[in-house]
Design goal:
about 475 residues; alpha+beta; Immunoglobulin-like; four-stranded antiparallel sheet; 14 helices; 8 strands; about 10% strand; SGS domain-containing protein; SGS_dom; protein-folding chaperone binding
């Protein structure tokens, strides 16, 4: 099979997230003697997903030199991607200063700056050698953000016009830097991750394929022997460093919530127990690729995430698929921007009492006999109580106002009666899409006599007109 066919199959496997197959196919393609930068970068991505970060760095360095030597229309794109992948690998290795330098170089290349420019990024250190760029400086570093170009190549637009064609690549590196610098800022002052040990042009590897990768491949598929297949030595509890057990995650946020994706293969939703506390989230059991012995109850089956800020546990929730756990964390202080979301600790770390959000969080005390329970899953939303009407937030000195009982036994304050429409607009604007749909449906169908934010209540029925107080609705007749 030709190298091109093998490489195409490898990239297709990479797109399907079959990283082991992608690595094997790309190995064969590259070993036929073609140092294609695109193939090397694809193999680097496969190494990264398989958590072989040293091999990732080796392939990105080789891709960088190969792209530079070829000097064709795709060279700059390959150089930009190589610097970005260097950044992500250094991040996983705890070398956060090096990671930010590479992300910055990726941005500069996307801006159309000269490849060989001595920009001094790695020299921004103090007298002790600690990297001095701050999180705030990273956020403000948008002066030379490029616009979309005509065809995706820097050569098609003169440098300095802001149209290099690499806006997406620039935005990717810029966004990634916020995560890197947030982690860097949280490090102790003398942590090794604060020191720069990287150069703009990576040293060229001696071989196309790092020796470490070959060793790993041998471990995965040991040679057969006359006595039968050779078994790999068993992996025992505690033999895998915590850093290798940590999971990849991503997050985004709104004024009210932080939504987090925690990636892990072969998750069984029915077995998960997720505990929300004001300053932590604990998830168990988690299967670990690096520790195949893991089972419920093992230390390595649990991750405790120490949150960067506080949450409202009762308003937080979760869902799960076989490949990830998604957390929706309700901010304790709405509108406050989180710079990072959490630091992962392996095991059940003691962080104080947690506030359960579902029956799956409750743990029996020592005095209680264990009781068999059904498979655990996210608790359903509590059923609406007919006797209790919704209570909406208010700035009134008397506290929350029950608007459905307005006029029965109380009189609105002047500040509340002044602009009711503005108040309801504020509720609508701050509500979730589901709450907004509920408000629109209930208000329209009831002819303006009822308002609800509970979609579970009004979504499947017609909201009738409220006729209390002597009001009799009449249909319009032409």
């Amino acid at each position: 099979m030709s190298a091109i066919t093998l490489a195409q199959q490898g990239i297709e496997a990479l797109d399907k997230r079959d990283y082991a197959d992608a690595l094997a196919l790309l190995d064969k393609a590259i070993n036929q003697g073609t140092n294609s930068p695109a193939w090397l970068l694809a193999r680097a991505q496969a190494h990264y997903q398989l958590k072989d970060y040293e091999a990732t760095l080796s392939d990105t360095a080789l891709a960088y030199h190969s792209a530079f030597e070829r000097a064709n229309g795709d060279t700059r794109r390959h150089l930009i991607t190589a610097q970005y992948r260097r950044s992500t690998a250094y991040f996983q290795l705890g070398r956060y200063a090096d990671s930010d330098c590479c992300a910055k170089w990726s941005m500069l290349l996307a801006e159309g700056r000269p490849v060989s420019e001595n920009d001094g990024v790695e020299k921004k250190v103090d007298e002790a050698g600690r990297y001095t760029v701050t999180y705030e400086e990273g956020l403000a570093d948008k002066e030379n953000q490029p616009n979309y170009g005509l065809g995706g190549h820097a050569s098609q637009s003169p440098a300095g016009l802001g149209e290099t064609g690499f806006k997406r690549e620039w935005a990717r590196a810029y966004t990634w830097r916020s995560q890197v610098l947030a982690r860097l800022q949280a490090l102790p002052i003398d942590d090794p991750g604060r020191f720069v040990n990287v150069t703009k042009i990576p040293p060229k590897p001696d071989t196309k394929k790092p020796a470490k990768t070959v060793e790993k491949k041998i471990e995965r598929a040991p040679p057969a022997s006359p006595g039968g297949p050779v078994e790999k030595p068993p992996v025992t509890p505690g033999s895998v460093p915590d850093e290798k057990l940590k999971l990849r995650s991503d997050f985004y946020q709104s004024n009210q919530d932080v939504t987090v994706s925690v990636f892990c293969k072969n998750i069984k939703k029915e077995d998960l127990v997720i505990e929300f506390g004001e300053n932590h989230v604990r998830i168990s059991p988690l299967p670990r690729e690096e520790a195949p012995y893991v089972k419920p109850g093992d230390r390595e089956a649990t991750s405790t995430f120490i949150l960067a800020d506080t949450i409202d546990p009762s308003g937080s929730s979760w869902t799960a698929t076989p490949r990830k756990v998604e957390l929706k964390l309700k901010k304790a202080v709405p509108g406050h921007k989180w710079r990072a979301w959490a630091e992962e600790k392996i095991g059940s770390v003691d962080v104080g009492a947690a506030t359960p959000t579902s029956t799956s969080d409750a743990q029996p005390s020592a005095a209680q006999a264990p009781v068999a329970a059904p498979a655990l899953a996210p608790a359903p939303a509590p059923a609406p109580v007919a006797a209790q009407a919704p209570v909406y937030p208010t700035s009134s000195k008397k506290g929350p106002k029950n608007w459905e009982k307005m006029g029965e036994d109380e009189v609105a304050d002047d500040d509340e009666a002044g602009d009711v429409n503005a108040f309801f607009k504020k509720i609508f604007k701050s509500g979730t899409p589901e709450q907004q749909r509920a408000m629109m449906k209930s208000f329209t169908e009831s002819n303006g006599t009822a308002l609800s934010t509970d979609w579970d209540d009004v979504g499947s029925r017609k909201v009738e007109t409220v006729t209390d107080g002597g009001f009799v609705p009449k249909k319009f007749e032409s």
